[in-house]
Amino acid sequence: VKVKGIMDPPDKVSIIAHRGASGYAPENTMPSFELALEMKSDYIELDIHLTKDHIPVVIHDETVNRTTNGKGYVRNMTLAQIRRLDAGSWFNEAYPMFAREKYAATPIPTLDEVFDTFGKNISYILEIKDSTNETNIESLLNEYIMKYELKNVVSIHSFSRASLRKFHTINPEIPLYQLVWNDYSQVRVSAAFLKDVKSYAVGISPNFQGITSAYVAQLKRAGLKVMPYTVNYQLNMNKAYLWGVDGVYTNFPDRFLEVIETN
Ligand code: G3P
Ligand code: CA
Questions:
Q1: Which atom of ligand 1 is nearest to the CA of 229?
Q2: Which SUPFAM superfamilies match (predicted)?
Q3: Which of 1, 23, 143, 189 could form a disulfide with 251 if both were Cys (CB 3.0 to 4.6 A apart)?
């Protein structure tokens, strides 16, 4: 029996592979992005930091400590130093049930490598992790999007409102999503906040645990898209789907595909 949610699901609900299909392969690596594509994800989400020589590379943390065999801050290392690191063996050790030989020694990808490999075969959500006046990461990312002619398939998100505002002034055509973190389930949010977000972004990406169906409905009535992160269990994916979200970030894109197909 089909249960009707507060709002009907939109025509297209996006599967967003969070750091790639990172439940099955090392996060933010080429194998995790390849798997995301194989699993029919609409988007890959990737976290961007700049190296010492100002090259955008794909890694979540500001240091390489957790996900590679090296140590140190990404911003203090050159691209050459970064590329020597092994970004996959930690995964094989942590998740032996999903370990694969090819993950060992897979490097931290550059944004060039990702755009060059996947082109328009998938859409992208880039997360700006460290925005500073010195590096001007917003202009740099826009240059990459233009260089690869990917403006129709790239979105940007960030927790930094200042960074998103800045990006919007550089290129108002790129869809932006405001990341938010709610400590507890939000029933509603201030109209002033939504109005402000709407002035530069097309949507809000909240943590799933911090939202309710009423919150989703309020954002949608305000004309904003809603894409919660990071939803890994089908029970929650199903809830989000019935609440009418526009997309779901997940480490397991195949699970969300199944939920969409069975609804
Ligand atoms: O992209 C949504 C989510 O990725 C934000 O948090 O820590 O996983 O980058 P984080
Ligand atoms: Ca992220």
A1: 2
A2: PLC-like phosphodiesterases (SSF51695)
A3: 23
Which ligand sits closest to the CA of 229?
1
**219 occurs within a structural domain:** yes
pLDDT in tens, 238-260: 999 999 999 999 999 999 999 99
Model pLDDT, residue 138 = 97
Whether the per-residue pLDDT at 135 is higher than 90: the answer is no
CATH code for position 173? 3.20.20.190
For the stretch 177-197, pLDDT in tens is 999 999 888 788 999 999 999
Please give the Cα distance from 227 to 103 (Å, whole number).
29
Instruction: List the residue whose alpha carbon is closest to atom 10 of ligand 1.
Output: 60
The verdict on whether 49 is a catalytic residue reads: no
Pocket test for ligand 1, best of 60, 124, 211, 227 (most atoms within 8 A of CB): 60
With a Cβ cut-off of 6 Å, ligand 1 is lined by 18, 45, 47, 60, 127, 179, 205, 229-230, 249
Checking ipTM against 0.95, whether it exceeds it is yes
182 within some domain:
yes
Question: 205 to each of 28, 147, 216, how far by Cα in Å?
Answer: 19, 27, 11
Q: Does 160 reside within a domain?
A: yes
Where in the sequence is the domain holding 223, given as residue range(s)? Answer: 18-227
| In a domain? residue 260 | no
Burial class of 89 by CB neighbour count within 10 A (0 to 12, 13 to 18, 19+):
middle
Strand 154-158 with 203-206, pairing: unpaired
Alpha-carbon span 71 to 214, nearest angstrom: 44
Total count of domains within the chain: 1
